Model the fold of this input.
Amino acid sequence: MEKELRLMKGNEAIAEAAIRAGADGYFGYPITPQSEILEYLMEANPQATTGMVVLQAESEVAAINMVYGGAACGKKVMTSSSSPGISLKQEGITYIAGAELPCLIVNVVRGGPGLGTIQPAQSDYFQATKGGGHGDYHLLVLAPSSVQEMADFVELGFDLAFKYRNPAMILSDGAIGQMMEKVWLKPQKKRSEEILPWATTGKPATRERNIITSLDLDPARQEKFNLKLIAKYREMEENEVRYEEFMTEDADYIFVAYGTSSRICQKALQLARAEGIKAGLLRPITLFPFPKKRLNELADRMKGMLAVEMSAGQMVEDVMLSVNGKTRVSHFGRMGGMIPTPEEVVENLKSFIKG
Amino acid sequence: MAEITFNDIIKPENLAYKRSKLMTDNVMHYCPGCGHGTAHQVLAEVLEEENLQERTVGITPVGCSVLMYNYIDVDFQEAAHGRAPALATAVKRLMPEKFVFTYQGDGDLAAIGTAETIHTCNRGENILIIFINNGIYGMTGGQMAPTTLPGMKSSTSPYGRDVSMMGSPIKMADIVAMLPGTCYVTRHSVNTAGGVRKFKRALKKAVQYQNENRGTCFIEVVSNCPSGWKMTPVESNKWLEENMFPYYPLGDIKVPAE
Done:
């Protein structure tokens, strides 16, 4: 398959991009609003072309543990779900992080808590960026704001996951998963035939047996391992922070927003500028690692920052930690599947400015 | 007839049983008299005799055998509690040429992992599931398992398992035998030399069936837990024969058509 321009849903773009990125396996379970990923892959039947395994598991729990098994063989494997299903996967995710395995997890977020709603939300930020399961760990979290980025972040997510031997997550939402946009798809990559030295692929006489585990009953060794993980996360913070800025050069106030909210803020900042307010936008692309340094720099010359999220206020805490009191920070959000309009974002900015 | 001395007995040429080369030198953490050590040894013998080391991926459970990877010299993955069959599913599908087995206890396979067990068997994944059933949670200190016998005492059934409250012990081998995906379901023991030989033959058949892609093989080993049962090893083996075997009868439950 050559490079190709298509009109696709965000969910379909993820599925097609996974095939083209040379993924070895996808293990999923249906849940709205992301079932198109599994449906698309079943229809595309890549097993017959690239050899990619696609399997509908009996539960999200089984699916993430299939990912664990596949990742432990050094294979490029992934799963996808939406909020309630991602909660179920947390057990597997912490084991994968603890066993230092690479894999890709997609969360097409819907409103919660509980069964919540099937409409888009950004209320899983804490879960995605602070670990999610038990124990001290982080995922590498990418936040797409377009169908193009849904496609692009599949390969990027896999690359980063293998670079750090750490699970990566695409934190999307029901709006980006369901909407259709044009998307450039990359040419088909061949699936890797490389046997990774740490992978469990059968022990030849030439090496010791490989053991993939997250267990160490010796507290001193386990603490050493925890420190190793922390060092890895610091390295990600040094090397992998990604963000985008809009009109921040002369801005007095900036929005901080990712994914769907960042698109709304792009329109809101134009409306604000038309009213004479010097507004800008910083869009974090990686939510972990978070663009802490850049926000701290910007805080030196900003009168304030408004975090706009479809949540009760989650990312805003990271913005506050980043600026460390240098400037005013507040939050505006809608919840329960409601999406803010640019106009109400501007109104909120105005009342924030008034203080 | 010349008298056989101790020194004759230990001569290499007179050894009927020896430690498999695939058993490591690590000291086992299992309690004296526990069946796990024997089951490990028999499995290692089969992996060695069938030349499987280079293409074996084993999946260990959560429970007493969580540290099995310390004892047998093949590649291992350590699963979350009950999830070993899900890991094995992916390993086998991604690398069909490998020999893939899980090794699970009764809490792991018959309680928390019930869904994974049933669906892996139902899909007929070409893997071997080895199920060690000793009717108790050993690792966590002797709590009631789904396979604990009626009236049997444990730390969470101190007055004996009351089936009117807790249901009857579950016979997983009989359940998975009903699923078309399983090709070979059989129940064994390792508390006697005869039992060990039969278990070994069953493992060899399972290797053959997996090589022939015939579906899921499920081998249950009805075993003891001297510590959890609060008995000496000898007492526990007697109790095993008198109580466990009548409820979990040994022998083939399902065999493939030849």
Notes: Chain A has twelve helices and 15 strands. The mean pLDDT of chain A is 98.
